[in-house]
Amino acid sequence: MSEPKLSSQDLEAQLVDLDGWTIEADKLHKQFKFPSFVEAFGFMSSLALVSEAIGHHPEWFNVYNRVTIDLTTHDSGGITLKDIEWARKANELA
Question: DSSP string spanning the chain?
């Protein structure tokens, strides 16, 4: 069974504590910037392990020292608590 999609009110409440994350195209969105490609890639490698552990995978894009991430739970048709949990972990690792 998939996670329930967050209501607009619940999502807004969660965003208060998610530094730098916004909603773009109905997805949680953030761009991280690092001093180098190696650090950006290391961040992605660490998050790949998180993704496997919680069974939730991002849409992401890397160019040199930037990592752009979009999160949504496709099975639920929107943003869920799994996306919020993943975003919090990304902020911790950055």
Answer: -PPPPPPHHHHHHHHTTSTT-EEETTEEEEEEE-SSHHHHHHHHHHHHHHHHHHT---EEEEETTEEEEEE-BGGGTB--HHHHHHHHHHHHH-
Could you give the CA distance from residue 78 to residue 83 in angstroms, rounded to a whole number? 9
In a domain, 3, yes or no: no
Q: In the structure, what pLDDT confidence band is assigned to residue 1 with cuts at 50, 70 and 90?
A: low
State how many domains the chain has. Answer: 1
**Distance in angstroms (rounded) separating the CA atoms of residues 27 and 45:** 22
The region that residue 39 occupies, defined by phi over 0 for left and psi between -120 and 50 for alpha, beta otherwise, is alpha
pLDDT > 70 in the chain, percent: 99
